[in-house]
# Entry
Amino acid sequence: MRLVKWNPTKEMPTLFDKVFDDDLFGIERYVDDLFSAYREPSVDIYEDENEITLQADIPGVEEKDIKLEVKDGLLTLEAERSEENEKKDKKFFRRELRYGGYNRAFTLPRYADYENIKAKLEKGILKVTIPKKEEAKTKKIEINRL
# Structure
């Protein structure tokens, strides 16, 4: 009998393929389901003298799949990115695109004008414009000479 030194790097591609390509025990689906609730769109929020602007990165989401609400000073953004049916039957080598729901909530300041909020979706970016109430805007005070 001849002894051969084991070379783990020679067997690694085979082990890797078995574990990850065959979706061992459905673990890929389990991990996707586990983290789907924690997906949140990235946002930028900034303001100027007249308004607060929120921009959310939600690529692949259509307007009909977006729900934007304000209640009790809380702006809630919900969106759903659906998977195309034709992809469900394919065997993937790598899968990084994410599908499912997004959910974020933002507390608005009391000086936000909830009645006049506007939103538009362009190239995967949702832009929400929240005007400020008049009393929140900076007012210049004249100084009179005595």
Summary: The longest helix spans residues 8-21. The radius of gyration is 25 Å. Residues 23 and 29 are 8 Å apart (CA to CA). The mean pLDDT is 78.
